[in-house]
Amino acid sequence: MRLIFAVALVAALAVGGATPVLAQDDDTIGAGDQAFNDGDYASALKAWQPQADAGDPDAMTKIGSLYYYGFGVGRSFKHAAEWYEKAAQLGFVQAQFNLANMYYDGNGVDRDRKQAARWYTAAAQGGSAKAQFYLAQMYEEGEGVDENQETALQWYQKAADQEMPAAQYALGNKLINGDHVEADPTKGSDLVLKAAEQKYVQAQILMGQLYWRGKVLPKNLIEAYVWSSQAKDNAKNPR
After folding, report:
1. Distance (Å, rounded) from C-alpha 135 to C-alpha 203?
2. What pLDDT shows up at residue 139?
3. Deepest of 36, 40, 147, 232, by most Cβ within 10 A of its Cβ?
4. Exposed e or buried b per residue across 34-73, where buried means at least 16 C-beta atoms within 10 angstroms of its C-beta
5. Are 83 and 61 in contact (CB under 8 A)?
6. In the chain, which residues have pLDDT < 50?
7. Helix or strand or coil: residue 21?
8. How far apart, in whole angstroms, are the C-alpha atoms of residue 71 and residue 21?
9. DSSP conformation class of 162
């Protein structure tokens, strides 16, 4: 099962405070994106609709997310899934990832882990680090696909190569313990450190344990205390 829960925001969205905004330069932002940033979701929909009708998968995905979150429209997972699928069928990575999430959780569509794996695969092949990570977990657990530890490791590696802390931690932990891979504690601890430096709590906890035990890393009670304290603070105040 997935280790972290994520439902992707609108393509190119970032969260700023309580209100989602489009992460684009003001000089190039479109009318729909500007309206969305201003909280005028009805105008955003009005601007994106003709683009979506003309076959723009980015606009389709954004409309899907309006329905998913109920921004300017009645919230409807069903309509969100329909728009995501239109864009996903056109090869739009963000829509493929969003649609995979919906199949995995059974939102707006029948819960179907095979379909989830299908769309995570498409998004992962398109370069989505989150899709690569989730697909790795599915291969590791045999969810929607035949269990394949080697394939799982390959997808973890691809996500870790994109500096995704959850993947760095997962792969690092496997390398430290020799879990379905030849043990490499040095490489493993380096990956865990990278995740810890990105404030990934589980990695910070593990770094504290590694310094406390003094087996994989030289015993250092000060470092153990520092990492454990950071993990505690970050757990109380998640980003």
Report:
1. 21
2. 98
3. 36
4. bbbbeebbebbbebbeebbeeebbbbbbbbbbbbbbebbb
5. yes
6. 3-27
7. strand
8. 12
9. T
